[in-house]
Every structure is written in structure tokens, then in C-alpha cells.
Amino acid sequence: MVDVCAPTRPGPWTPRVILALAVLAAAAFVYVTAEIMPIGALPAIAADLDVSEASVGRLLAGYALVAAVATVPLVRWTAAWPRRTTLLFTLLSLVISQLISALAPTFTVLALGRGLCALTHGLMWAVIAPIGVRLVPPAYAGRATTAVFAGTGLALVVGSPLTAMMSQVWGWREAVAAITAAALAVAVAARFALPLMSVATPAARWPGRRRHSRGLSTLSLLTFVGVTAHFISYTFIVVIIRDIVGIGGVNLAWLLAAYGVSGLTAMGLLARLGDRRPKAAILGSLAGLCLALTVLARLGVGGSHSTATLLIGVVAVVVWGATATAMAPLLQSAAMRHSPDDPDGASALYVAAFQVGIMTGSVLGGTLFELAGLTVMLATSALLIAVIAACVAAGRDLLVGTPGGV
User: Fold this and answer.
1) For the domain that residue 77 is a member of, what is the CATH number?
2) CB atoms within 10 A of CB 375
3) Burial class of residue 310 in the structure, from the number of CB atoms within 10 Å of its CB (0-12 exposed, 13-18 middle, 19+ buried)
4) What tens digit of pLDDT does each residue of 89-101 get?
5) How deeply is 91 buried, as exposed, middle or buried, from its count of CB atoms within 10 A (0-12, 13-18, 19+)?
6) What is the rounded distance in angstroms from the CA atom of residue 297 to the CA atom of residue 378?
């Protein structure tokens, strides 16, 4: 295997490394697009399969539950596999699941198809960031992780708005079929662009068997609560934009795209700071997210769709996208720093906490949506984010930078 990080090279960003990181980002893009596809297509799926919008929203909860339960066992089971083989396994599972979903005659079959994708979702995230980190020197680990997570931002910029638009114009099944084709293309690219990359150390062969540090466990717990807070409201962002901001139809996709663009931009701007001062970067993101959710909750109290409400709502959604999206790579980098000799195991624990948070947030969001309405839902999210910010601010050695980061 060619060493892509040979010390004779002038820097880590060689063409081969850039291509490999781009393929990893593409894998993240198709997986996240598939995961959140029901959010943008929520009304279309509900109408076609004759179920409520809240039921479609709970598809995220079921998806996250399967991913959370399956992640650590699958990471352990595939621990001795070459990393590229593991990633290809997850991508082929995604292709099959999306094909089943596109042809699903009932809501139950759709849920089962998404369940197959969810089985390998956590495994994909558990290995994809460590692969990216191993392509570059340690001081660039945060930036490599951010490059991989750029796929998440692109899913919000392109994937979610595009599938939402396709669902409204052509149908949600056509949107899922497009994801199927994209996933197959990424699998082929991964086969030829990524090194085989065997497991680096004996300790990494059995992730999950080692006792994790208290700092990693605490970080994972805070991640769970923070993701829960976010997805209480994000699961119904289409409804929030439609009913509170006052934007519907095809124009809704443009605001979803702006949400993603702001997130992608924030990830780039905070990448260097995330390597050197991750606590400051995460606290800033939490503060901005809390503010955005609070503003949207306040707009929901008024109930009017004036020009001022529209403008303030658009800004709040854009800030929401920037702050929420930027935190994911910062938190995953911090998790891997807590266990440098077992990055796959640390990443698996973080991913499991993240997926349980998605599940819990989707379920709570659906319940609050049906019983209390959007305003209470958004206020609950803002309150939980404020609690997390206070815990992060008070914590010591929870978010440490990479020594020698440049």
C-alpha cells in the first residue's frame, strides 16, 4: 500500500489525499441525504402512503434506533476488516436499501427498507472519520475530519433541497431512485480511490472492549442531549419554515439550501479553530443555535406572516444551519482525541450517542408537534441547548485541542 502521508511530501494535501477525502465526503453526502430524505419529502410521502406527517417524521426515529443499536456490534464484528472493505459494505447496503424504499408499496415496507440502510449507517460513520484522519498527520486531524463532514454540509445544501424539490415536482420515489444511483457511483469511486488501509493497531481490532475514558463518556452523553435538542425541531423544519417563516412550495427548497450553505461555510471557517481551540468553537456554535431556535419560537407566538417575520425567520434558519452543522465534525474530532489508540471505538461510541439522540429527538419532536405545537417544540430545543452550553462551559479537559496544531 502506498503511504499517502509520506514525510518527503511538502504537505498533507496531495492530489491523492484530496481525492480520497472527496470520496469520503461523497459517501457522507449520500448517506446523510438518504437519512434525512423524509424531512424534505414529508408531505409527499404522507399523501402517497396515506399516513400522517407525524408518522413520516418518526421514520427518523426508527432509523436512528436501528443505527444506535447496531453500531458498536458491527464495528466490533468488522474490526479486522480493511477499512475500505468496511466502507464498501456500508455503501452496498445503502444501495440495496434505497432500491427497496423506492419500490415500497406500503409505509411498512418503506420503513423496513430504511432499516437496512440504518443497520450500516453507524458503522459508516464509525470508520469514515478515522479513515480521513489516517490520511494526514495528527496536527491536521480536525481539518481532515471537517473535509469528510463537508459531505454532510453538501447533503443539506444540495441533497435535502434537491430531494425535496424532486418529491414535489416528480415524486418522492424518483428522489429515492436518484439516491440509489448516486450511492452506487460513490461505491465504485471508493473502490478505486481509497487505499485498502488495514487496521492500524492491535487495540483497534476490538473496539468497544476497552473501557472508555470518563471524558469520552461525558462528551458522548452531552452529544446525545444536544442532538436530541436539535432533532426535536429539525425533524419538522419543513413545517417550521412553512408555518412560522411563511415560505412554502418550491421556494422552501431554496431556504433549505441556504441552511446547508451556511453550515458548509461555518464548517470551513471553524475547521482551524476546531483543531486549536475546540471549546471556543463549540461554545460559539451552541450559543448561536440557542439564539436561532429562541427567535423562531418567539416568531411562532405571533402567528403572523408579515415581511418582518419572513426576514427574521430566514436569518434564524440560516444561523440554525451554520451552528448546528458546524458542531458535528468538532465533536467527532474531540471524541477521537480522547482515545487516540482506538479511534474506531471512540468514534463508534460517539456515533451511537448521536443516533440515540436523533431517535429521541424525533420521537419527542413528533409528540410535542401533535400535542403542544411548533412554538413549544422550538422552545424545548432552545432550553436543552442552553443546558448543554452551560455544561460545556463548566467542563474541564472535555474538549482539548491537538498538541502542536497548526
Assistant:
1) 1.20.1250.20
2) 18
3) middle
4) 999 999 999 999 9
5) buried
6) 5
